């Protein structure tokens, strides 16, 4: 049975508004200026700690590690306030399942916030396995993150495809010997992807 491995932020769901809200709550608590949505979207892809690091660097400040646990708690509690699946995504997941595909999630978002988000949006039942950015010792772009999904479900690389909106997704898939589809509706760049999809609704035909 083929496996479709989905990235989360910027691929399955438009989560930049909640990431921005959590980031700006932290910024406000530190007496710092908020970030506009496009600037936050461009910082998403390397996980929550990296987002904070980039935000503080953008303000010319060093990042204090002691701020991370509170940010993670906020993200977990508020991961699906503004976040929604991309239009057509649920229908695409269902159509792919009807075509015989199983689904998994491979995200750099921490696993606690990931599970909360998937549960709150009713998406969890679609996925046979979910790995977050802190589920393994490595995360995307390390191919070990994608390999962890394959091994967890006993699927060969040749029977899988990775769908993602970021270079990290494309690189991790390539390193694991998995075909990649660039999710052009998300936040990042897809240089080097095997295929590109303009919208979730294109996935069922693209994957056959
Ligand atoms: O939270 C992030 O920065 C990235 O998450 P993603 O891997 O689901 O895009
Ligand atoms: Mg992404």
TrEMBL record:
<protein>
    <recommendedName>
        <fullName>Phosphoglycolate phosphatase</fullName>
        <ecNumber>3.1.3.18</ecNumber>
    </recommendedName>
</protein>
<feature type="binding site">
    <location>
        <position position="165"/>
    </location>
    <ligand>
        <name>Mg(2+)</name>
    </ligand>
</feature>
<comment type="similarity">
    <text>Belongs to the HAD-like hydrolase superfamily. CbbY/CbbZ/Gph/YieH family.</text>
</comment>
<dbReference type="InterPro" id="IPR036412">
    <property type="entry name" value="HAD-like_sf"/>
</dbReference>
<keyword id="KW-0378">Hydrolase</keyword>
<feature type="active site" description="Nucleophile">
    <location>
        <position position="7"/>
    </location>
</feature>
<feature type="binding site">
    <location>
        <position position="9"/>
    </location>
    <ligand>
        <name>Mg(2+)</name>
    </ligand>
</feature>
<dbReference type="InterPro" id="IPR023214">
    <property type="entry name" value="HAD_sf"/>
</dbReference>
<dbReference type="Pfam" id="PF00702">
    <property type="entry name" value="Hydrolase"/>
</dbReference>
<comment type="function">
    <text>Specifically catalyzes the dephosphorylation of 2-phosphoglycolate. Is involved in the dissimilation of the intracellular 2-phosphoglycolate formed during the DNA repair of 3'-phosphoglycolate ends, a major class of DNA lesions induced by oxidative stress.</text>
</comment>
<comment type="pathway">
    <text>Organic acid metabolism; glycolate biosynthesis; glycolate from 2-phosphoglycolate: step 1/1.</text>
</comment>
<dbReference type="InterPro" id="IPR037512">
    <property type="entry name" value="PGPase_prok"/>
</dbReference>
<dbReference type="InterPro" id="IPR006439">
    <property type="entry name" value="HAD-SF_hydro_IA"/>
</dbReference>
<feature type="binding site">
    <location>
        <position position="7"/>
    </location>
    <ligand>
        <name>Mg(2+)</name>
    </ligand>
</feature>
<keyword id="KW-0479">Metal-binding</keyword>
<dbReference type="InterPro" id="IPR023198">
    <property type="entry name" value="PGP-like_dom2"/>
</dbReference>
<keyword id="KW-0119">Carbohydrate metabolism</keyword>
<keyword id="KW-0460">Magnesium</keyword>
<dbReference type="GO" id="GO:0008967">
    <property type="term" value="F:phosphoglycolate phosphatase activity"/>
</dbReference>
<dbReference type="InterPro" id="IPR050155">
    <property type="entry name" value="HAD-like_hydrolase_sf"/>
</dbReference>
